[in-house]
Design a protein that fits this description.
- The complex is a heterodimer of chains A (352) and B (286).
- Chain A has 352 residues and is of the alpha+beta class.
- Chain A has two domains: 4-215, no CATH class; 225-349, no CATH class.
- Chain A has helices spanning 11-21, 47-51, 61-64, 84-87, 89-92, 104-118, 124-131, 181-189, 199-215, 225-231, 236-244, 250-253, 301-320, 330-333, 341-349; strands at 4-7, 23-30, 33-39, 68-75, 79-82, 97-102, 133-138, 164-168, 173-178, 261-267, 273-280, 290-291, 295-296.
- In chain A, β10 and β11 (273-280) form a beta hairpin.
- With 286 residues, chain B is α/β, with parallel strands linked by helices.
- Chain B folds into two domains: 16-107, Elongation Factor Tu (Ef-tu), domain 3; 120-245, 3-Layer(aba) Sandwich (Rossmann fold), CATH 3.40.50.80.
- A seven-stranded mixed β-sheet of chain B has the order 10-9-8-7-11-12-15, sandwiched between helices. Chain B has a six-stranded antiparallel β-sheet with strand order 4-3-6-1-2-5. A two-stranded antiparallel ribbon of chain B has the order 13-14.
- In chain B, 52% of the residues are buried.
- Classes of the chains: A alpha+beta (352), B alpha/beta (286).
- The interface between A and B is large, with 53 and 45 residues.
- The complex binds flavin-adenine dinucleotide (FAD), iron/sulfur cluster (2 copies) and FE2/S2 (inorganic) cluster (FES).
- The site of flavin-adenine dinucleotide has 21 residues of chain B, from β4, β5 and α2.
Chain lengths: 352, 286
């Protein structure tokens, strides 16, 4: 069998073994906030984040698509000197990367971004980092907290995008199911940590998945949502939420599927060299669609509020045949104005 | 539509270094730049359709979208017409022949020139909208026999803003093109042509237009579109035969940064040229 067993008490051993061979990124607390960080040993990892199913504030998108990153460097008079191949974060990490303890919804979130960054014109800066990375996911057997609605967005059972899925089959044991060549290799490479699976373990795994299937409930109907939003484009509901919104952009920054960015030129003090930096942007900011001559294509706050929904729930599903939201609930958790994406959608659907 | 993305060994995020070969002053705030990619191979394969755009980088200042204005038949170099309106465009206007800029692209969907062979063509443009239209127009003139009638309506603000006056005079004297131009205002009384907005030129071509066989390419300021569409519909031209180039803020040009979103489309990927049919189904388009 390719699937293996790992004891819960051996998870730190796994992290330490991986840290010898990979750059390991795992859940930690940074000023009490659950955060994915680079770790050198298992002592830095907060395993309770995994088992109490707390979502790190920022999803793993920050690893492939950092809040700020250099795209290329140049001389002001001679042009590009170092293309993205030479300056990207991927080029600077000579080790491959393992992200440990990613929830299934976040795996789906990475999948959304990967698809977008790959399709049409592939974005080397993102993909170089993604290609170097293996993801070890930690399965959820139940809604992790009150803001989670992953089942509604069909994101808690990703079919790809992770290399190993860990599922708890008892208080002390997890099954490690590989889902790619990279994952299979990791299971083979650490035989002292991953052990053979018994028939009883297999049964326990099936029971766990059945339990998962029973525990997760959908909260509202997603089928037909795209056209429903278009049909309600002029609805008063948008205004109602717009009045509450502070347009701080928090919801877009913490979102695993939000990817819009802007670019800035950073010039050296001697005005000889520079670099292009890209950084996260938000469609909630007034300058987002502002062009020369003070013309703003989304002048009204209401248009800006609405666009995020239009893009996530209309454009992304149609363009890529995938959900533009994974139901992680981060935008709900971190919204200072208590705006709940579920309420907006339910009102639009007329079920609230 | 040509598959125009040039093979870029530097990836889609990094511009190709390119040299300014020639600068022509068009008006007090508009210049024409002739540009050549430094890399021989990329330069040879730089191919585009009229209506497509590039992102031009002024190193240390910024990057902006500019429509290609030369005919695709012109190989080895290409032209960009740029009006001074802000930070990056001001800096471009200070540049000299030999200076290095960055070029990404060409990107986007241009005017459907191949799909409409043998049709009559009507171009309508205003202001800097002349630039992308010029590429389509020159393309049609380069293979004149591929098309039926060619009609061109151009309007600008005042006589000193008029772009390519010499080229325009040449077109007006040709008998296989119907070229009409106008200025909105002529305060100094130095214009001997039509005065009025571009829609006042329509009577000149009304009798020439066969609505079943005419395809229209439009580019100009957003406010112009509404009025032009009314005129085109009066002529009986179907929405599916009217193509407009839409302007939006752009940061990536390749469907990633989201700045150019229009309804459920991106101007950089799905446009900038859209049919009026498409636009009717797009929220917040016009
Ligand atoms: C597809 C397309 C084709 C275009 N073709 C031409 C052309 O042929 N000739 C021409 O003169 N102009 C053209 N423009 C408009 C040109 O891009 C803007 O005038 C230019 O971006 C202004 O930059 P700025 O830094 O000088 O102005 P600022 O006001 O200082 O702009 C700041 C930033 O906002 C963004 N921005 C501002 N205005 C626009 C705009 N209108 N469109 C997109 N981004 C904008 C740019 O990223 C710019 O760097 C085109 C725009 C688009 C979208
Ligand atoms: S929109 Fe909200 S719930 Fe959906 S993926 Fe983004 S942060 Fe999570
Ligand atoms: S986090 Fe809340 S207040 Fe801030 S922009 Fe998003 S919806 Fe508006
Ligand atoms: S310019 Fe970035 S998505 Fe269109």
């Amino acid at each position: 069998m390719l699937s293996k067993i790992i004891l819960r008490q051996d998870l730190p051993k796994l992290v330490d073994a991986l840290a010898n061979d990979f750059l390991v990124i795992a859940p930690t607390y940074e000023k009490k906030v659950p955060t994915f960080s680079e770790v050198e040993s298992s002592s830095e990892v907060e395993f309770d984040i995994l088992f109490n199913e707390k979502l790190p504030m920022l999803p793993p998108k920050k690893i492939f698509f950092p809040a700020k990153q250099t795209v290329f460097k140049y001389s002001l008079t001679k042009g590009v000197t170092d293309s993205c191949d030479e300056v990207s974060d991927a080029a600077n990490h000579n080790k491959n990367i393992v992200i440990f303890g990613v929830s299934p919804c976040d795996v789906s979130g990475v999948g959304v971004l990967e698809r977008i960054f790959k399709e049409n014109y592939s974005d080397d800066v993102f993909l170089q980092l993604r290609d170097k990375t293996a993801i070890i996911s930690m399965n959820c057997l139940d809604h992790c907290y009150e803001n989670c609605f992953c089942e509604t967005m069909s994101s808690n059972d990703p079919k790809s995008g992770f290399d190993i899925m860990l599922t708890e089959i008892s208080k002390s044991k997890l099954i490690a199911v590989p889902n790619s060549d990279k994952g299979k290799k990791i299971l083979r490479d650490y035989p002292e940590i991953f052990t053979q699976i018994s028939e009883k373990d297999s049964e326990a795994y099936t029971d766990a998945l059945n339990l998962k299937n029973k525990n997760f409930k959908t909260e509202f109907l997603v089928e037909g949502l795209a056209s429903h939003i278009e049909d309600n484009f002029e609805s008063k509901i948008w205004e109602e939420f717009t009045e509450k919104c502070l347009f701080c952009g928090s919801c877009t920054f913490v979102c695993p599927t939000c990817y819009c960015y802007t670019v800035k030129e950073i010039v050296s003090v001697d005005l000889k060299d520079g670099e292009r930096q890209r950084e996260w942007d938000s469609c909630y900011f007034p300058e987002f669609a502002l062009v020369a001559g003070d013309h703003n294509f989304r002048e009204k706050k209401e248009q800006r509020f609405r666009y995020r929904y239009l893009h996530k729930f209309v454009d992304l599903p149609r363009r890529y045949n995938l959900e533009g939201c994974v139901g992680c609930g981060r935008c709900v958790t971190y919204c200072p104005a208590n705006i709940d994406v579920r309420d907006v959608l339910k009102k639009i659907r007329g079920v609230m | 539509m040509r598959n125009a993305a040039i093979k870029q060994n530097v990836g889609v995020c990094t511009p190709n270094n390119a040299k300014i070969i020639k600068i022509t002053e068009l008006t007090h705030n508009t210049k024409l730049f002739e540009i050549q990619l430094e890399d021989e191979h990329s330069n040879k394969h730089f191919d585009y359709s009229p209506g497509q755009f590039v992102l031009i980088t002024i190193f240390g200042v910024g990057e902006i979208p500019i429509g290609l204005t030369s005919s695709p038949a012109k190989r080895g170099t290409f032209e960009l017409g740029i009006r001074k309106v802000g930070n990056v465009t001001n800096k471009i206007h200070q540049m000299k022949v030999g200076d290095i800029v960055g070029i990404r692209g060409p990107f986007g969907k241009g005017f459907p020139v191949e799909e409409n062979k043998h049709k009559d063509l009507l171009y309508v443009c205003g202001g800097t909208g002349y630039f992308p239209i010029r590429s389509a127009f020159k393309d049609a003139l380069d293979r004149r026999d591929d098309y039926g009638k060619i009609m061109f309506l151009y309007g600008d603000r005042c006589p000193t803003d008029v772009l390519f006056p010499d080229e325009n005079d040449g077109y007006m004297s040709k008998d296989d093109i119907l070229f009409h131009q106008s200025v909105d205002r002529d305060d100094d009384k130095c214009w001997d042509g039509n005065v009025g907005v571009v829609t006042t030129l329509f009577p000149n071509i009304a009798k020439e237009v066969d609505p079943e066989n005419t395809v229209v390419f439009v580019a100009g300021p957003a406010i112009m579109y509404k009025y032009v569409i009314i005129e085109l519909e009066k002529l009986g031209i179907k929405n599916e035969n009217i193509y407009l180039s839409l302007e939006r803020k752009m940061k990536c040009g390749v469907g990633k940064c989201c700045h150019c979103g229009i309804g459920d489309k991106f101007a950089c990927l799905d446009g900038p040229v859209f049919s009026l049919d498409q636009i009717r189904g797009l929220l917040e388009a016009l």
